[in-house]
Amino acid sequence: MRLRGLTLAVAGLAALAAGSLVAWPLASARITRGLEERLGRETGLPWRIGGLGLGFAPGPTLSLRDVRAGAEAGGSGFGLTANRARIAGPFGLLLGSEGSIRVAVEGIVLQGPIPGGQPGPAGDAPIGPIDGVSGLRATLRGVEARLGSSGRDLAAAVESLDLVLDRASGTPKTEIRASLEGRDYRAALDLDLATGAQPLRISLDPTGAGGRRLAATARAALGRTALRLDGLAGTIDGEPFSGTLGLDVAAKPRLTADLRFDALTLTGAEGARPAAPNGGLTVAVDADLIPDPSWFEPFDAKASLAFKRLTLGGLRLEGAAVAATVKEGGLDLTLASEAAYAGTARARYVLGRAGDGGRHQLSLSLHRARALPLLADLAGVRGLDGTASARIDVQATGRSLDGLLRSATGLADLSVADGRLDGLDLAGLIGLVPGRAAPRGEAGADGFLRTRLGFLGGSFSVADGRAITNDLAMRTNILEAKGAGSLDLVARSLDFRLTPTLIAPGAGRSRRGLDVPIRVTGPWADPSATADLSGIARDPGSAIDALQGLGESLFGGDGDPGGDLGAGLGGLLDAILPKPRERPAPGPRRP
User: Fold this and answer.
1) CA-CA distances (angstroms) from residue 129 to 172, 181, 198, 450?
2) Are 324 and 175 in contact (CB under 8 A)?
3) pTM summary value
4) N or C: which terminus of the chain carries fewer CB neighbours within 10 A?
5) Is the peptide bond before 58 cis (omega within 30 degrees of 0)?
6) What are the residue boundaries of the AsmA domain, all occurrences included (predicted)?
7) Is residue 290 within 8 Å of 398, Cβ to Cβ?
8) Which one of 27-31, 59-63, 266-270, 366-370 scores highest in mean pLDDT?
9) CA 99 – CA 167 distance, rounded (Å)
10) 408: alpha, beta or left? (left if phi > 0; alpha if psi -120 to 50)
11) Would you say the C-alpha torsion 302, 307, 311, 316 has a positive or negative sign?
């Protein structure tokens, strides 16, 4: 009897197992449809699951294959696919019970338009806690994402996603903890979704050399189509910043920013980031970088940035404010500093869609700045001081620096007044000081040779790659000079003709009857100066030699380094118009 009973039991179990195997396709289909319907209700997207498996070790699990959603599942708009997904936890969670469920997904691809909504109170209503969810912890690995040219299309790939979902009824907040590992960065985000304040913590760490580290906290206001960060405070590479940020994707993505920084340095250095001379952030910018309207097509933006110290190349500005607007593929940027070398500076750059590469417009004004530190920072020129003023208005089209220079048109006025020239003892050079004929290059008691400068400057007309002037002028206590000439902006050369008139000290405005034109020509980094002696029948040899030396000292040659304005002129022009980076010549092509 016992053997017969055992046999009947085994037979019964076998029959039950056989029945389960027969019924599993029907059961799995019902479970699959239930999951698809539940996911559809939760997300508002159609879902399709290609296959489903059930396991019980070490606990109940569901394995899904070929998961599709949205456009990939027969809908429209946004689409998602995943190769495999594994769900572990109490199956009662699918029916609304409390507990934790774990989800592991592999091979995720997302693409399509960014889901938006209607702007206004309804679309921007803040999101509070997720109903029935007390916590959400996610880890994403191998993340790559990019926006399309319209700014409304997203393409992203994720190698794997590990998600833990804690369900609990009546929770006052939902704690979201996420980490993301991309090719170059590792990020972490902590956000508490609550009915009131929603504290946010963000960190960003590079996974390789050359990246930047960011850590910040803020109060987040999260809506269905908008995100705003108030009370934003943090550091970038240890340097503090603060302000507010906003992003709205209801229509075209729109970014707003109001940020404050201690110091920022923009430099043309390549390779490793150099340290900022006065602390703060340092950002390397390629000298060949020309903004393109296509960069600004995907989004609109409005930003206000304030800097205690802003360094542009060698130019140092205190108390600088930057305002930028991006709209319809164009950029309008203004810069203002009330403490620019003891003067004021204003600049405006406008980029619009026109021609090949867009239209670039630049307006710059400098008022009553101190010339000596300004020129020293820009080009290492330390032989000229006074009150500097400038006004530049130019526009150009093109995608390269040469193209911009060839197409540039506009006007420029530059001047330095009420100062001095160091390194040039003009009175001693031309022997006009009674009882003194100082040798060339002799220093005064303080180690410098100086000449009082009343005015130095002129106006330029820019067209066809050249800057032309007909009103160059210089006035000192020793001489006056007038001139004309041109700068070749592409070939980086100059050709000027100056005519100095000597003024005898102590004789009022009487002039010494000697006008010897000086021709200054050649590459602006190393120009040469020669005296034009044509038309002079008789001339004191010493005066001619002195004027020849004067031209060389002003614009190049072997004069005192502190007063070598020739090298300084080239350096100044190079600072204003950076030379494109030289690229190696192409090697022989392989057959």
Assistant:
1) 7, 26, 10, 74
2) no
3) 0.75
4) C
5) yes
6) 303-471
7) yes
8) 366-370
9) 5
10) beta
11) positive
C-beta separation of 175 from 134 below 8 A: yes
**Paired strand residues for 246:** 228, 256
As a whole number of Å, the end-to-end CA separation of the chain is: 91
β-sheet bridge partners, residue 453 = 419, 476
83 vs 108: CA distance, rounded Å: 7
**Buried (b) or exposed (e) across 8-42, using 16+ Cβ within 10 A?**
eeeeeeeeeeeeeeeeeeeebeebbeebbeebeee
How does 419-450 read in b/e, with b if 16+ C-beta sit within 10 Å?
bbbbbbbbbbbbebbeeeeeebbeeeeeebbb
CB atoms within 10 A of CB 95: 9
For tokens 């602390």, the residue is 279
Instruction: Give the pair of three-digit tokens for residue 513.
Output: 């009857």
In total, the chain counts a number of residues equal to 591
pLDDT tens digits for range 258-305: 999 999 988 875 544 455 455 678 888 877 788 888 888 888 999 999
186-238 pLDDT tens trace: 999 998 887 666 888 999 998 877 678 999 999 988 877 888 999 999 999 88
From 556, 552, 551, 580, select the one nearest 568 (Cα to Cα). Answer: 556
91: amino acid identity, one letter: F
Q: Are 322 and 312 in contact (CB under 8 A)?
A: no
Instruction: Give the pLDDT score at 15.
Output: 42
**Counts for the chain of helices (H) and strands (E), in that order:** 6, 28
Is residue 516 a contact partner of residue 531, using CB atoms and an 8 Å limit?
A: yes
